[in-house]
Amino acid sequence: METMTLPHDPYNVIITGVGGQGNVLASKVLGNILTAKGMDITIGETFGATQRGGSVMSHMRISAVSSWSPQIPRGMAHVVIALEPIEALRVLCDYGNPETLVISNDRPVHPVGVIRGEMDYPEKTVLREWLMTFGRTLYLIPATDEAVKLGAPILANIILLGVLAGAGALTFDRNDFSQVISRMMPPEKLGINLKAFDAGMGMV
């Protein structure tokens, strides 16, 4: 893999979702891709009540020159990748800024309060308006819908990594992804993961 040039050093990425959506795996895949390109990666993870759909968040500090503390300072995220749109809002309230790139799945995971009828979940148009107030560029992607077409809803996380690659914020491509995922997954899962990554790149 070729080395990369970062637009900022450190470059701060947050990957967020709820328990069971696969955002921890996404952070490991992205971290391995960037490590192979010569970057120094620090990852800090926070876990909510994952068995009840609690928040899960990975902070990634990416640098070409040194290691950094795993906690991204407030208001200093360059990219937020969210597997659930309300989780994107939650993160952006603390870490977003006018230059943040936001990549979010559009499929909601309703909390217990919504399921019980005790609260409302925002409409998609409202969510889009809110998300657009927090960052420079928004990709609100039907990642789960595309993953279902591939036969595995969990692949929404890989689709969003494909969107990140297609957006060009970090210079990695299908070949970089293929080299890493082939070391992390059994051979029979390589093809479907490449299809998911390609689907994400094609959405940009």
Record the SSE blueprint.
Elements (H helix, E strand, L loop, with lengths): L10 E8 L4 H14 L3 E8 L7 E9 L15 E4 L2 H11 L5 E5 L6 H4 L8 H9 L4 E5 L1 H7 L6 H12 L6 H11 L5 H13 L2
Parallel strand pairs: 1-4, 4-5, 5-6
Antiparallel strand pairs: 1-3, 2-3
Give the overall pLDDT as a whole number: 88
**Estimated share of beta-strand residues:** 15-25%
Q: CATH H-level name... which superfamily?
A: Pyruvate-ferredoxin oxidoreductase, PFOR, domain III
Quaternary structure annotation = single chain
Largest sheet: 6 strands, mixed
Radius of gyration of CA atoms, rounded to a whole number: 16 Å
Count of separate structural domains:
1
Question: How do the SSEs run, as a string of H and E?
Answer: EHEEEHEHHEHHHH
Helix percent reads 25-40%
User: What structural class do you assign from the helix and strand content?
Assistant: alpha/beta
Contiguous helical run count:
8
State the total count of DSSP E strands. Answer: 6
Low-confidence stretches: none
The CATH topology label is: Pyruvate-ferredoxin Oxidoreductase, domain 3
Q: What is the level 1 CATH name?
A: Alpha Beta
